[in-house]
């Protein structure tokens, strides 16, 4: 697939999202480490801390409540799509968005929706696996390493092709809180790297593998 070129980004967040990964993308755009801009942040609840951060940064903010569209996934999807088209978005970044993205969005933005997960997928992923739950599961498993994954979004939880991963050690004395704190800077680096790759490099997807390739050679 061709590089996107300049990224016009929409960030999706849920009600409890603090917005640090969103902030990492904002900072990278401001510092020109990402070619493009975050044009809109879309949340599920008005009181989300991430939305406060976005407003303070001067980014357009919209709230589209899934509860308003309960049992009407298509209507919810169309409300989101209207916003994405209004802001001429070509890349969607999920940052603490805990819902399964509606299928019409995935179809309309094929290989243009990214998500970050605080574990080395395919381990410790799936519905209900987010935040502290992930770090608890990693520690309880006895794993000696953990990390984060940026992947393309498909129609299930945490199953799309993997674009970037970063790893850190798990120490014997780690708690979910210390592990999360040490991992967070790596999440920020990984998300910025993934957006840069998607906007500037030629990619080929084979199953869950994402290959960076030379467009003048076969993939």
From TrEMBL:
Residue intervals of the Formyl transferase N-terminal domain: 8-195
Positions with a binding annotation for N(1)-(5-phospho-beta-D-ribosyl)glycinamide: 19-21
What Pfam family is a match, any one?
Formyl_trans_N
Organism per entry: Chthonomonas calidirosea (strain DSM 23976 / ICMP 18418 / T49)
Q: What is this protein called?
A: Phosphoribosylglycinamide formyltransferase
Family annotation (Gene3D superfamilies): Formyl transferase, N-terminal domain
Site positions (Raises pKa of active site His) are: 158
Catalysis: reaction(s): N(1)-(5-phospho-beta-D-ribosyl)glycinamide + (6R)-10-formyltetrahydrofolate = N(2)-formyl-N(1)-(5-phospho-beta-D-ribosyl)glycinamide + (6S)-5,6,7,8-tetrahydrofolate + H(+)
Pathway where this protein functions: Purine metabolism; IMP biosynthesis via de novo pathway; N(2)-formyl-N(1)-(5-phospho-D-ribosyl)glycinamide from N(1)-(5-phospho-D-ribosyl)glycinamide (10-formyl THF route): step 1/1
- Gene Ontology terms, MF aspect: phosphoribosylglycinamide formyltransferase activity
Instruction: Summarize the protein's role.
Output: Catalyzes the transfer of a formyl group from 10-formyltetrahydrofolate to 5-phospho-ribosyl-glycinamide (GAR), producing 5-phospho-ribosyl-N-formylglycinamide (FGAR) and tetrahydrofolate.
Output the HAMAP family linked to this UniProt entry. PurN
DNA-binding recorded as keyword = no
Annotated Gene Ontology cellular component terms: cytoplasm
Q: Where does (6R)-10-formyltetrahydrofolate bind?
A: 115
Q: Where is the active site?
A: 117 (proton donor)
Query: What processes does the entry annotate via GO biological process terms?
Result: 'de novo' IMP biosynthetic process
Q: Which NCBIfam families match?
A: PurN
Alphabetic keyword roster: Purine biosynthesis, Transferase
Q: Which PANTHER family match?
A: PHOSPHORIBOSYLGLYCINAMIDE FORMYLTRANSFERASE
Entry EC no(s):
2.1.2.2
Q: Which gene encodes it?
A: purN
The entry assigns this protein to a family as follows: Belongs to the GART family.
